Amino acid sequence: MSDVAISARRLSPGTKAVLGIFARYGTIIGLLAMIVTFSILSPHAFPTVNNFTNVLNQASLAMIIAGGLTLAVVVGELDLSIGFAASLHGILITGLVVHDKLPIPLAVVIVIALGAVIGLVNGFIVTKVKVNSVIATLGVGTILTGLAFAYSAGVPIVAGVPEAFLQLSLGRWLFGIPNNIIVMILVLGGLWLLVERTPLGQEIQAVGGNAVAARLAGVNVDRIKILGFVISGMCAALTGILLASRLGSGTASAADSYLLTAFAAVFLGSATLRDGEFHVLGTLVGALIIAFGFNGLNIFGAPTFSQYVLQGAILIIAVGMASLGRSLAER
C-alpha cells in the first residue's frame, strides 16, 4: 500500500473534508483573501475600477500565453519554447511593419501562422521523433532566441513604428475596454469552449487523462498532441504581437519572462475546482492571483526583487497544491 493511502486512512473525516475543500477552492479563497487584504490596507488605491482594469490589462498577455500553454499541458506535454517564441514574434511583426511596410493585418496573419508552424514543429519532434517535450521545446526555444538576435542584429526595432500598430494593444475600440482585455476574453473563452464543450475537447482531455486508453478507443493521439502544441504556438505568437504593440518596439528577449509566469498560472490553476487537473478556467484564476499579487507589491512600494521571489514561491506552491489535489483524487 502506498504512503499516500496509508496516510489517508489515518486522517479523520473532518480533516479529509477540509483538505478536499482546500484542494478544490484554496486558490479562489486565496485570491479573494488577497483582494480583501489589499483593499483594507490601501482603500484609496487598490479597490478601484481603474486599478482593477489596469491589473487585467497588464495580466492579459500572460493570460493569453498561459491559455495556450494549458492546451499543451492538458494533452500531457510541456512547451518551454513559448516565451522565446513570443519574443521572436514581437521582433518579426515589428520588422514586417516597419522595415517591409506590410499592412498590419497581413503582418499579424503571417506571424500567427509562423506561431502555428513552430507549434507544429514542436509537436512533430515530440510525437514522431519521440523526443521528450521538455528537451524538444527547450531546444526549439533556444533556436528561436538565436533567430531573434539574427533578425534584429541584437538591436531593438524602435524607430518608425506606426501609430496604428501601437493601437492594437493600447487602443480601446469597444466600450472603452482596453483591447488586450477583449482579446484575452475571446482567446480564453474560445479555448474553454473548445476543451469543455466540443467532441474535439473530449478527445483532448482523454489524451491527457490516459493516452494509451485514448488510442485504444480510436483517438489519434499524435494528432491531438500536435494540435495542443499548435494552439500553444499561436497563443505565443499573439502574445508577442500585442507585447510589441504595447512596448512600441521589437526586442530579442522582451517576452522571455512570460515562460515562468505562464507555468505558474497553469500549475496554480490545476489546484482550482478540480483535483489536480489542468484546465483553462483554473489557469485564469492562477493568472489573476499572480497579477493581483504583483499589483499589491507595486502599490505598497515593494522592491523589484520581491516580484521574482513571489513568482518563484507561487510556482513552488502551485506544483505542491497540484500534487496534493492529485493525491486526494487518487485516494
Overall description:
- This protein has 331 residues and is an all-alpha fold.
- It has one domain.
- Helix content is 76%, strand content 0%.
- It is built from 14 helices and no strands.
- It has helices at residues 3-10, 13-41, 49-74, 82-98, 104-127, 133-152, 163-170, 179-197, 199-209, 211-216, 221-247, 258-269, 280-299, 305-330.
- Helix 4 runs parallel beside helix 6 (133-152), helix 12 packs across helix 13 (280-299) and helix 12 runs parallel beside helix 14 (305-330).
- The chain is globular.
- The N and C termini lie close together (11 Å).
- The mean pLDDT is 89.
- InterPro entries: ABC_transp_permease.
- It is found in: Cell membrane.
Blueprint of the fold:
Layout (H helix, E strand, L loop, with lengths): L2 H8 L2 H29 L7 H26 L7 H17 L5 H24 L5 H20 L10 H8 L8 H19 L1 H11 L1 H6 L4 H27 L10 H12 L10 H20 L5 H26 L1
Helix pairs in contact: 2-13, 2-14, 3-8, 3-11, 3-12, 3-13, 4-5, 4-6, 4-11, 5-6, 5-11, 7-11, 8-9, 12-13, 12-14, 13-14
InterPro entries: ABC_transp_permease
Subunit structure: The complex is composed of two ATP-binding proteins (LsrA), two transmembrane proteins (LsrC and LsrD) and a solute-binding protein (LsrB).
Membrane topology: Multi-pass membrane protein
